[in-house]
Amino acid sequence: MRFVIITGMSGAGKSSALKMLEDNGFFCVDNLPIELILKFAEITFRDKGENIRNVALGIDIRSGQALEELDSVLAQMRNNRYHYEILFLDASDEVLIKRFKETRRAHPLMHEGRVDEGIIKEREKLSFIRNQSDYIIDTSTLLTKELRMEIEDIFVRDKKYKNLFVTILSFGFKYGIPADADLIFDVRFMPNPYYVNELRHKTGNDEDVKKFVMDSEVSEKFLEKLYDMIKFLLPNYVKEGKNQLLIGIGCTGGKHRSVTVANEIYEKISKDENLGIKVAHRDILR
Hints:
The protein has 2 domains: 2-155, Rossmann fold (3-Layer(aba) Sandwich), CATH 3.40.50.300; 165-281, no CATH class. 44% of the residues lie in helices and 18% in strands. The chain has helices at 14-23, 34-47, 70-79, 93-103, 115-130, 144-155, 197-200, 207-214, 217-240, 257-272, and strands spanning 2-8, 27-30, 54-58, 85-90, 135-138, 165-172, 183-186, 244-251, 276-281. Strands 2-3-1-4-5 form a 5-stranded parallel beta sheet, with helices on both faces. A 4-stranded parallel beta sheet has the order 7-8-6-9, covered by helices on one side. Strand 2 (27-30), helix 2 and strand 3 (54-58) form a beta-alpha-beta unit. Helix 2 runs parallel beside helix 3 (70-79) and helix 9 packs across helix 10. The longest helix is centred in the last third of the chain and has 24 residues, at 217-240. The radius of gyration is 22 Å and the shape is elongated.
């Protein structure tokens, strides 16, 4: 049986994650009083999967002062050999503020203050459980379907997870460098399909454009070296505790070369790394 505690920042997607696990057969309970968690665990583990196979328990800042008791409750669960996993959902402050504004909801710790003040207080109060988490998913750039894939990979398909979500983003330098990028690579030295009439109006998602870009010793060599460097960096970012990495691949317009390279890197990394990963093309439709 899997006993999963889902927690995290308000607005980061905890309710959605609970619903996703419920859709996959988990028995889900949201915001159970802290003082009842140990008793609940005792009942579910005693059941030994006869009626309940998997459990997901939602805990958040709404527990108030009782949240401080969670640390000792988790210690008692470990002493009783009740194995549990903690999933912490996070997002950047800017994204959380935007979500609260869009939904017109008040932050639980906002009171008469501002949303950003509530977020700061919440981060402080939840830091102890974030530090104990087995999985951390940053939902800042995730679509709902991408979050579902991550949840199902971890808790349904039992894939290993390294608490790092990687986004490979193609872009055009003429439209500006992505402000949130951690790594930027310029591929404007590669053969440019823009100057081939039959390829100009296509994109790096088309096979003939991909072949044109990659049918060059320089392109092949660069892709090989870039992949080796990224493969070296990823486990070191994991060790550092980083949970979100955006790799920008740029060309002039963001339609041909950068799209091709971003797709190639995505294919290589997704085959042999147990990471959350997606590819996106910012300027492909411009």
